[in-house]
Amino acid sequence: MTRPSGFEGYRRPDGRVGVRNHVLVVPTVVCSAVVTERIATAVSGAVALPHLAGCGQLGPDMETTHDTLAAYCRHPNVGAVLVVALGCEQVVAQMLAESARSAGKRSAIVSIQGEGGTPKAIAKGVELAADLARDLQREARTWCGADDLILSLKCGGSDYTSGLSANPALGRVADRLNALGGSTVLGEIAEIMGAEHLLAARATQPEVAGRLLRVIQRVESEARALGLDIRGTQPSPGNIRGGLTTIEEKSLGATHKAGERSALEDVVAYSARITRKGLTVMDTPGLDVESVTGMVGGGAQVVVFTTGLGTPTGNPIAPVIKITGNARTAETMADNTDLDVSGILDHSESIDGAADRLLDEILAVCSGKLTAAERLGHREFAIHRRNPTI
Amino acid sequence: MSGKIIVITERDNVATALTPLSAGDSIEANGSRVTVREPIAGGHKVALKAIAAGEAIVKYGNPIGTATADIDAGRHVHIHNVASGRGRGDL
After folding, report:
1. Can you give the pLDDT at residue B89?
2. pTM, rounded to two decimals
3. Does A388 touch chain B (CB under 8 A)?
4. Which CATH code fits B5-83?
5. Out of A160, A231, A234, whose CB is closest to B43?
6. Residue span of the structural domain in which A92 resides
7. More confident residue, A237 or B55
8. What is the pLDDT of residue B1?
9. Helices A59-74, A288-297: inter-axial angle, 10-degree rounding
10. What is the C-alpha to C-alpha distance for residues A252 and A358, in angstroms, rounded to an integer?
11. Domain boundaries, chain B
């Protein structure tokens, strides 16, 4: 093995490692989202985190919103944070700024009501964000090990090729990364349904297996409580056209992403910090953007997203690498695709060969190579919510 | 005709068509030869043996659903003759 097992990243004061160095401009509430986007557009190196939440939420949804925003403020791919407040909302700007400071990052706050309206808040915000960005330019990448990585394992727009090619290739990479001392995270609980016995059998402790099975049961009973057939969305109409018949079939293909050898170390809540080496399952919905948002919130610095039909999803702070095992999609969706592993199905490439190329691509992206989603400006972000807006 | 289908484990009673199959095509899998009875789109599944209503459809060596009708070898296996029992609030 002479393959590189490291990359050039940003070592942060809290010990974590970033693969990007963004100034994160984060609105506390949907009301400050437009001001946030205008500030970020004006400053090179700044990225906005517009969202639809931050007020009118109670209990668990409010906690999820706050915890997700706070997690992005602490995230190692973020170098500094500007919080854009309205002034009367539930999410507290000071708490987000403090979250960034607790991870050793510079932070600042601008308030629309405090500055006296949109133009003044934008002007002040641009000044603050530009100052933060200037500081970040002085930071240099240093050599970091693969054991510093948390890799998010994701699939979407799946078809019959996903479970036969791209997912097994990603699974080999997940097993290798975990063996090197890194971490991987698998979300999308509904898409484990039907394959949970395989993952539970790999749990390090019965208690971890029990947590996995309880989360699966909760999601299944939520679907039942609606009085509806989960087949209205799982598999999706596109999955069914692609030849996938049931959620069990989709899940058995999807869980190949989590490898075959890695033990299941932990099961965590949405956006909760991933602390274990090896494989963690996160309680996220199957909706791509909400799922990626949560896993990046948990600390994943990079996402590998396998697709059969092709999909554009990115993330504001983490690179999302697209790979497909469908030769037609590799051609028709070339603009959105980073890696073509369709050779697995026509026997021109082995799964291990594809995994070698994928691991090389991940490390190159972690060193700064832009993904298709980054080049095209895909920065989708959506915080999961369960309850009505009040 | 090998190369047009893939069978993942020996326990599977379905194969996945890698290219479209036509009625009359002959496929060989898990030691037996099966004549395709109807057009099967690429990515879709074909029965490798007779599967009775109520029997499990097995792919990846695991059950992926239950046959809702008798399925002859060589027939298309999809949502018209397979049902999942998971997450069914409509039942």
Report:
1. 66
2. 0.95
3. no
4. 2.30.130.110
5. A160
6. 22-136
7. B55
8. 40
9. 60
10. 21
11. 5-83
